[in-house]
């Protein structure tokens, strides 16, 4: 199981790092758009749409990286005061809802992407109408990566619920960062 945890964690770390560099392309698109609009009074047809699409991909692909680092927003008024075993038990219970939600989103995301490919759906009603599928393909990919991370955490939580002890030094470090 440790190999699975390692693989999923390394995969989501790599995905997070790789896709974080897209922010530079979004910034360049914004700079070009602002320069053209206000410097030359010739706004581009693609600036706003491209920036939005790049940021959407960053947001989607950053989800698994956030799940890996346990940085999604949560209310932890009580949670932070519980023992690792109690946290793991609560996480196991809430994981059922996470799996249900991610499963539905994955199913819908695959269908949403499939329709975009088959019907050649366009992104916007503006003059520049890029195809939707290159962006929509990241929806099921990102959900699948979050699901993989959730399965990894679920397996880890089962072990912690049984033993009451975190299994690796890495988790202890992550635990210390959360508190």
Keyphrases for this structure?
179 residues, 75% helix, 0% strand
What can you see in these coordinates?
- The mean pLDDT is 87.
- 75% of the residues lie in helices and 0% in strands.
- The two termini are 26 Å apart.
- The protein has seven helices and no strands.
- The protein is elongated.
- The longest helix is centred in the middle third of the chain and has 35 residues, at 84-118.
- By secondary structure, it is mainly alpha-helical.
- The chain has one domain (2-178).
- Helix 3 runs parallel beside helix 6 (138-163).
Quick synopsis:
This protein is mostly helical and 179 residues long. It is built from seven helices and no strands. It has one domain.
> Structurally, how many domains make up the residues?
1
Task: Name the average pLDDT.
Answer: 87
The helix tally amounts to 7
Which stretches of 5+ consecutive residues score pLDDT under 50? none
Order of helices and strands: HHHHHHH
Give the beta-strand count. 0
Gyration radius over CA: 20 Å
| Helix content class | over 70%
The general outline is elongated
The proportion of residues in beta strands is: under 5%
Distance between the termini: 26 Å
Structural class: mainly alpha
Largest sheet: none
Note the topology.
Layout: H1 2-20, H2 22-39, H3 47-68, H4 84-118, H5 133-136, H6 138-163, H7 169-178
């Amino acid at each position: 199981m440790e190999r699975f945890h390692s693989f999923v964690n390394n995969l989501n770390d790599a995905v997070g790092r790789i896709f974080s560099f897209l922010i530079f392309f979004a910034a360049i698109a914004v700079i070009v758009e602002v320069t053209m609009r206000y410097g030359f009074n010739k706004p581009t047809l693609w600036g706003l749409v491209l920036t939005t699409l790049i940021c959407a991909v960053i947001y989607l692909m950053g989800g698994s990286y956030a799940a890996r680092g346990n940085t999604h927003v949560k209310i932890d008024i009580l949670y932070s005061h519980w023992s690792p075993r109690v946290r793991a038990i609560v996480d196991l219970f809430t994981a059922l809802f996470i799996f249900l939600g991610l499963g539905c989103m994955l199913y819908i995301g695959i269908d949403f992407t499939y329709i975009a490919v088959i019907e050649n759906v366009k992104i916007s009603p503006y003059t520049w109408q890029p195809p939707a599928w290159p962006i929509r393909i990241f929806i099921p990919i990102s959900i699948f990566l979050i699901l993989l991370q959730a399965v990894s955490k679920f397996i880890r939580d089962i072990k912690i619920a049984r033993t009451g002890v975190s299994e690796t030094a890495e988790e202890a470090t992550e635990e210390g960062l959360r508190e």
